[in-house]
Each structure stands twice: as structure tokens, then as C-alpha cells.
Amino acid sequence: MRRVFWVGVGVAITVVVVVRGKRVVARLTPASVADRATARADEIGGRALQAVRDFRTEFVVARDERERELLAALLAEGQEDPEAVRRRRAAGRHTRPVADDPATDVDDVEELLGYSF
């Protein structure tokens, strides 16, 4: 996450420098030179924006792939899918029926430990 943060900081600084640079160029140079510099800055900004978009796309794909790998490695055999647990909890159902009998709901931790307080 540190690298993503510093990439973001670099992009933000680049945007600030380009915007302020355009103002300085427009103020200190003749119109034709300023037009060329502005066009070049826009071109560089477009390439930088495309690079950031490509980076984000690759990052999201790699992150999702790694998440799937970690889930596959960490879930025990027979363990419930975390997404199913999240959906159940979002719906307000914090317990899971035991032995197909909804009347015998047992807390997840209680079922795991075999006792309760």
C-alpha cells in the first residue's frame, strides 16, 4: 500500500506542476511558443493519465487474483465461503442452522468451540 500511496503523491505533484507550469509558460513566452508548450504538456498529461489508468487496471486484476489465491489457501476443507457469511450477516442473520433444523440456531463461535458462556 505504501507504493500505491507514493504513486498517488507523485501523480498529484505532477498535476500541480503541469497546471502551474502552463500558467508560467503562458505568462512569460510569446503566444506561438506557449501554444506549443501547452500542446506538449497536454500530450504528456494524456500519456500520464493513460499510464495511471493502465496501472490501476493491472493492480485491480492482480489484487483480485491474489485474493482468490489467499482464500483458496486459507479456507479449511468444508469451511463456508466468506461471501456467503457476509451476505447472511448483512441480512441480519448471525447464526447458522445446525443439522438442517432452523430451530437449533447456534452461534458460529459456539459451534466451533463446542461450548458457550
Automatic annotation (TrEMBL):
Record protein name field: Secreted protein
Biased composition (Basic residues): 86-96
Region (Disordered): 79-105
